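Lab meeting, item 3. Inverse folding demo.
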């Protein structure tokens, strides 16, 4: 169990193989489906300058969406083993003990679960967000505005259900372009196939620095809580 000075920013190298990453980048460039990147539903190029494809629900991107979600889920299993309260603290989860009586889960229970059981719990509690493929053009692209991923923008409250953010870096043939976290004073250098997972709240305010001498490609999304009706039933 990790205590001490955890900053809750985790990077998992080789979450996706380099060939698959290259293929996704090539498909992005060939697709001509990209749109100007938005923030919270609005287009503010001075805050975020990118070309995006929201691939979720698009038939011709279904295989990529599945590959990325599988990579994210594998990383999430590792993340929850390191930080079990990610799963336990917001929800009073319980399960039958040896005597058949329900009891609350604690962090030791997560450690004792095998990957299959933990994955089942993940799919019960969480839902994957919409995946955006993004290209940040060299020398001008970026998301220089300090921001977090948890905000009360939409009536469905989806943006308030965001629990974790993730970014999978699809290339590294550029300079700079790090994901920079303000309070933790950490810069994550993009590496092909690396998966970044971090919390969505103001504590993990961050920005995407401008790539130099090459375009930066990423896939990015969130891990959201299931809606209350799914988690708790109606009423």
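The presenter then showed the designed sequence:
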């Amino acid at each position: 169990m990790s205590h001490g000075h955890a900053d809750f920013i985790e990077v998992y190298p080789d979450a996706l193989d380099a060939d698959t990453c290259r293929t996704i980048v090539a498909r992005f460039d060939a697709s001509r489906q990209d749109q100007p990147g938005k923030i919270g539903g609005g287009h503010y190029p001075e805050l975020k300058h990118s070309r995006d494809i929201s691939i979720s629900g698009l038939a011709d991107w279904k295989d990529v969406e599945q590959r990325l979600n599988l990579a994210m889920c594998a990383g999430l299993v590792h993340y929850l083993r390191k930080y079990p309260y990610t799963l336990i603290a917001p929800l009073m989860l319980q399960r039958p003990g040896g005597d058949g009586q329900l009891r609350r889960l604690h962090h030791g229970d997560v450690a004792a679960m095998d990957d299959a059981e933990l994955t089942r719990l993940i799919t019960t509690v969480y839902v994957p967000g919409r995946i955006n493929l993004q290209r940040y053009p060299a020398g001008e692209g970026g998301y220089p505005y300090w921001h977090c991923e948890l905000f009360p923008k939409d009536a469905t409250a989806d943006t308030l259900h965001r629990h974790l953010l993730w970014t999978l870096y699809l290339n590294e043939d550029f300079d700079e372009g790090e994901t920079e976290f303000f309070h933790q004073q950490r810069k994550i250098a993009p590496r092909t196939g690396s998966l970044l997972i971090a919390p969505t709240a103001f504590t993990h305010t961050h920005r995407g620095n401008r790539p130099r001498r090459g375009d930066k490609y990423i896939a990015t999304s969130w891990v959201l809580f299931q809606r209350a009706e799914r988690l708790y039933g109606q009423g």
